[in-house]
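Forum > Structural Biology > Help requests

Title: Can anyone predict the 3D structure of NADPH-dependent FMN reductase?

Hi all, first post here. I have the sequence for NADPH-dependent FMN reductase but no way to get a structure on my laptop. I'd be grateful if someone could post the structure tokens.
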Amino acid sequence: MYKILAFAGSNSPTSINHQLVLNVSKRISEHELEVLKLSNVEFPMFSIVTEKKGTPGTVKWLYDHIQEVPALIISVNENNRNVSAFFKNILDWLSRIDRKFLEGKKILLMSTSPGRNGGAVALEYAKMILTRFGGEVVESFSLPSFKENFDVESGKIVNEVFEMGVTEVVTSFTQQIKE
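Reply #1:
Sure, ran it for you. Structure tokens for NADPH-dependent FMN reductase below:
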């Protein structure tokens, strides 16, 4: 059994990407999961001036959590066809502690949005940037049209095709953690 850390790259308290993280996390029973809600954590905006004062405790806290696990589940939100400034800021801070802060980490990368593309542009950007920091994106998927394909009350994906696809991706991801 391995420990997996899961979070959304969104600072919205009602994040649909966090809801997707919760849905996927409930599917994994053979590993220990810790789900973080980063919208509850203060991360100052990265700058050289702020960095000279020292790395914020919340950044060190997240870095330590990441270092303790072999695998991550991350769902990125999309703003203006890119990852959110919140998620980019977190990456900037973490990479200043250690450029390869994701070295040896296997990642299930996801995205969702209210639109038809499901945050696919942010997903592709995140695939590229996370590997730059040493991570291995072993599985990924995008859930389009969140409001039509996800029931918030039950926390379930209601579109059968997407449900089957997510199940397949999660099964593959958990198998690859064991390898």
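The domain at 3-178 is CATH 3.40.50.360 (Rossmann fold). Residues 160-178 form the longest helix (19 residues).
Shout if anything looks off.
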